[in-house]
Amino acid sequence: MYGLREKKYEYLNKINITSTKWERLKPSEPYCFFVPKDFALQAEYEKFWKVNDIFHKSSFGVTTSRDHFVVGFTKEEVIHRTSIFTGNLTDELVKRALNLEDTETWELSSTRQMIKGQQLEENIHPYAYRPFDNRWICYNPLLIERDRKDVMQHIQSKENFGLNLTRRLRDQNWDHVYVTDSITDKTLLSSRDNCYFFPLYLYPETNNSEKKSSVRNLMLFEPQADYGARKANLSPIIIEQLTKSFKKTPSPEQIFFYIYAILYSNIYRTKYSEFLKIDFPRIPFTNDYKLFLKMADYGKRLVDLHLLKSPEINPPIAKFQGKGDNKVEKLRYEPTRLFINENQYFEGIEPQVFEYQIGGYQVCEKWLKDRKDRKLALDEIKHYCNIATAVKKTIEIQKLIDVIYPKIEEETIRSV
Question: Rounded CA gap, 304 and 306, in Å?
């Protein structure tokens, strides 16, 4: 029962165990839910390939426990805060200036002592914070709670990108998938559910104790390889099965793009919604090579759009209009216009673009809300226009994906 206490009492005074309309449940393994679930498609769905079986290595995103200190909109903001932390002020003044508190796992005074002499500016890196919201982080293990270095080292200042997903979902709809090419936050996709990061490539381990294990695992599918080079973070089994079906070996990027396109199919999301909320998604791989390439092409377009590296974002669909100081105050949306204050607005923001969600966030609204009371620089205004364009193009590509998605399931490569 949900609601106010008085309403619950009122209901219970009228209803008893004999007058309640009961529904018989049929819990099934492995989850045994005590709420109604429609698992009629379970047998079909379980023939697909589970994402965490496709990718060899993954982890949660980064947990800082002190975003307001180590994460900033600009690199200069983070440099300024870290200079206060390493400066000559007393511990008490630093706590007040940076709004920091000791916790069970972190103490300001001892951390300041350990960090003395370190060049923290060298630890500042781009940080994928929210969809289309790239910030900066002081990525130093002494300052953040869980750095997930084991996996994040493969994308830190390297040519790589990765898939971000939730495993279990408390948000109403499943649209929790996004690509990033930098160190990634655990709440990238939702403030309620942690995000898992699956890098496409693995680079040589920087931690010597982990290097032997990494090399041993990589030998499973590339025994003759040079271990100074990056390796695809993909199961040898899926590569073998795809090669067998296609009579040629698809590239790691093609496999990634194909997966990304499937996860952006609205047909797929709706059809398997019950399963997507309770575990990692499963991917249907077609055995039709031409269809695979077509879907991978759509996936590449989506990846390029979401990393804002696509030529399709030019020219942008939105324009910034009105006179003022560019300060984000109270947002107000009117059809095609999104006001950031009384006089200034972004024009060309269609309702479907404004309402579009990635994960638990309404993208076009969230990005601006997080910048309330800030004055937008010219680069930020251009960036926002590109976001709106990328979202509109995403919606268009999703429609194209759904045209061919039914053919994907006609004949699939069964998981082994």
Answer: 6
Residue 317: which of 343, 337, 339, 331 has the closest Cα?
A: 337
Helix (H) or strand (E) holding 113: helix 108-115
| Cα 367 versus chain centre, distance | 15
Tokens 């790691």 belong to residue: 252
The neighbour count for residue 334, using CB atoms within 10 Å, is: 9
The packing angle between helices 108-115 and 91-98, to 10°, is: 100
Element (H, E) at 96: helix 91-98
Work out the end-to-end distance of the chain between its first and last CA atoms, rounded to an integer number of angstroms: 43
Q: Find where tokens 């609204």 sit.
A: 365
- pLDDT tens digits in sequence order for the chain, 416 residues long: 567 788 788 888 878 777 777 677 666 666 555 455 555 678 889 999 999 999 999 999 999 999 999 999 999 999 999 999 999 999 999 999 999 999 999 999 999 999 988 999 999 999 999 999 999 999 999 999 999 999 999 999 999 999 999 998 877 789 999 999 999 999 999 998 899 999 999 999 865 444 434 433 433 344 433 345 899 999 999 999 999 999 999 999 999 999 999 999 999 999 999 899 989 999 999 999 999 999 999 999 999 999 999 999 999 999 999 999 999 999 999 999 999 999 999 999 999 999 999 999 999 999 999 999 999 999 999 999 999 999 999 999 999 999 999 999 999 988 87
Q: How many CB atoms lie within 10 A of CB 199?
A: 27
338: left (phi over 0), alpha (psi -120 to 50) or beta: beta
Distance CA(330)–CA(371), nearest Å, equals: 11
* Residue of 191, 200, 143, 151 whose CA lies nearest to 171: 191
**Structure tokens given for 298:** 């759509």
**β-bridge mates for residue 201, sequence order:** 232
d(CA 202, CA 161): 10
Q: Could you give the angle at which helices 252-263 and 289-306 cross, rounded to 10 degrees? A: 80
CB 392 within 8 A of CB 302: no
DSSP state, residue 42: H
Rounded-to-integer distance, Cα 154 and Cα 278, Å:
28
